[in-house]
Amino acid sequence: MLQRPVIAIAGLSCETSSFSPARTPGGAFHPRRGPEVVEQYAFLHHGGSLANSADWKGALTGHALPGGVVVRADFEELSSEILDRLAVIVAATPLDGLWYDIHGAMCVEGMEDAEAELLRRIRDVVGSNVLVSASMDLHGNVSKKLAHQTDLITCFRTAPHEDELETKERACRNLVGILAMRPETGGVSRPFKAWVPIPILLPGEQTSTRVEPGKSLYELVPAVESKESILDAAIWVGYPWADEPRNHAVVMVTGWNEAEALKEAGRLASSFWKIHRNFHFVAPTGSFSDCIESALASRRRPFFISDSGDNPTAGGSGDVTFTLHQLLNRPEFRDTDGPSVIYASLPGPQALAVMTKAGVGAVVTVTAGAQVDSVHAGPITMTGRVHSIRYGDRDAEVEAVLQVGNVFAILTKLRKPYHHESDFAGLGMNPRLADIVIVKIGYLEPELSDMAADWMLALTPGGVDQDLQRLGHHRIHRPMWPFDKTFDRPPDLTPLLISFSNAQNEKQYD
């Protein structure tokens, strides 16, 4: 009976906008180390589906809220710790595999293709014989370098993301499955990998898998994966709010039959390109003013508005005050008898200090916002009643609600996304009873979608502006849809066979 394989776990995950003035520090990754790494994945717990399939060794993982470019010194510190911890694992026992748990759209100051560079460094420590399986967000970017350095690679198949844990488990199951095939004499067969870059770069708000054409496109993936010789099939739509050459859509198919992998990758890529003109926003859109007018005219409650340009879960700074300025200038919301509005949210640590000192029920004047991104509007000063205060949130740390007229504005010590009904309930608010709910988000996450009687996507400014053309990309490959509406010739979607070979890496990367 073969001994259980030894598999290490490592990775850093952060979706970062290079168009946001924010910077992501190392602490934002909330790093887990050693046994803590294994504990965060239910399928690796005692009794979990893969718990006994390998000897799982946690090195270090970190998952940061999306934001601005990662501070280089902090990245280097976390990376060095990953390498040191892997070195200790390798010194204690032969390592068979590595699960590389990443997002795929992390940008680091002064570095290009950060995930591929980190994996290159990891390879220097663990060696070329270790099999690497990567799990990613479908909004990540798969460069040729990253494709070379991995043996297996997969990504989410739903947007909004409802299969994150399922994807991570699939990455581990695929790795365990290959390692179980190794012969007694040592050595492991490596699968074939077919990689196809596609000149499309669209925001997630136009590529949701809940609606067409994304729905039908992603329904092709399980059919490809079901073929006997195929291990995995994946489609990345890419991340549009960063400006690196690797930012574009990608298809990858992994399998044991070279011809089949190439054929299926080409078929998925062609299917993607055939429908590239059919992608559209998943909700009615308009300026913020248009959205407010529509909400006031509508009888459907609650009416949700996505403040999409400053979405913190896509990489926005979260502190753009553009929409709150407009909202509080509207006469309809100045009277407590007017339509009720919940606004989520705006960072304001100094405002929080005033509000928490004054306490619930106090009337205070505070200033918040625009400490990071003041390009589109300056800080906002408000006078209102402290409605509620909450301490201890993982992201915000401290939250409080300021009632200004009939606007209930959530202020936070640190930026935080509001995706769950409990986020509001914990602050004494019921969004189901509000007239209008304004959330800094793009497409609505499942719980928000379930609550919304109606919804519009506001095309607001910020670091994750939905109007990609006005952001100023200059390093992405061209032509690229939708930056270029016409192509001199159809793109070459011939799949490339990607293999891992230490001796040939540099040539392969050219």
UniProtKB/TrEMBL annotation:
It comes from the Eukaryota. InterPro entries: MlrC, MlrC_C, MlrC_N. Residues 305-475 form the Microcystin LR degradation protein MlrC C-terminal domain. Residues 7-295 form the Microcystin LR degradation protein MlrC N-terminal domain. This is Microcystin LR degradation protein MlrC.
